[in-house]
Amino acid sequence: EVVYLNGQFLPPEQAQISVFDRGFLFADSVYEVIPFYQGVGFRLQEHLQRLAYSLDAIGLQAEQDWPVLLNELVRRNGGGNRSVYLQISRGSEGRRRFASEGKLQPTVFACTTPIRHIYDEGADRIQGYNVILTDDLRWHRCDIKSTGLLANLLMQQQAHRAGADEALLVRDGVLSEGTSSNLFVVRDGVIHTPRLSAGILGGTTRALILELATDAGIPCQETDLRPEALATADEVWISSSTRGVVPVTRIDGQPVADGQKGPLWQHMFALFTRFQH
Ligand code: PDD
């Protein structure tokens, strides 16, 4: 295994950063998780656009030829199906201080882990998710892909303790997203998903679902969703880069509709499979 750190490709045990790195001390850093299938970045440009958005949102300048860097990292790790983690922090000034003085050298770190190629495995292999509902404990800038994920982790722990795979989050009486995924609710043949202005992460998989649905003539609506709407939903899905589009078949122990993976999900999964190849 080889990781990338500040211009070098290294074995992980040789990659070192300062204890004063602002990413470590303050989570003063942003990240991306990008799937590579057969060595090729999936929706790479969309991920890099979101990275630019996150960097800009925290006032961090870090210009690099990201595609070259990430492709080289994947190649050095043997290619194949991998998820790439890329993190950029504001760097270190050799001590802990809230206000950072001047312009620091950002810390750029990237690593990869092998992943399954979900769409190659077929819809039958996908298991419906069991989720819980919980209060959204996060801050108000969830549009930034920040490494400050403590609230996400606590809510994920809560889901895990309840024997669930993911938690769906409720803020001010409306659903926002999952701890590490976006949310979709299907009713009467229409795909509904929370608006970006509801303070959620603009998921690349979310955008692709809306794109594929629109191309296939399936109506989509970005709208406020109340938790009560789940009780009468035909289908519920979550989405993320590494998991793709996943059917939710249980919420707080109750089945979604008949508790089976729904037909529109099967359709969307097929659209993804075709899109990948
Ligand atoms: N998480 N919402 C949140 C809060 C997320 O953390 C993620 C992704 C998404 C989905 O975004 P995308 O479709 O671009 O992956 C939505 C990544 C996978 C993670 O933190 O590991």
Describe the protein:
This protein is α+β, with helices and mostly antiparallel strands and 277 residues long. The protein has 2 domains: 3-115, D-amino Acid Aminotransferase, Chain A, domain 1; 123-276, D-amino Acid Aminotransferase, Chain A, domain 2. 26% of the residues lie in helices and 29% in strands. The chain contains 7 helices and 15 strands. The protein has helices at residues 22-26, 44-57, 66-76, 118-121, 150-161, 204-215, 263-276, and strands at residues 3-5, 8-10, 29-37, 40-41, 82-89, 107-114, 129-135, 166-171, 174-178, 182-187, 190-193, 220-222, 235-240, 244-251, 254-255. Strands 7, 8, 9, 10, 11, 12, 13, 14 and 15 form a 9-stranded mixed β-sheet that branches. Strands 2-1-6-5-3-4 form a 6-stranded antiparallel β-sheet. It is globular. Bound molecules: N-(5'-phosphopyridoxyl)-D-alanine. N-(5'-phosphopyridoxyl)-D-alanine binds at residues 33, 177, 180-182, 201, 203-206, 239-242. Belongs to the class-IV pyridoxal-phosphate-dependent aminotransferase family. Keywords: Aminotransferase, Transferase. This is D-amino acid aminotransferase. One of its GO terms (molecular function) is transaminase activity.
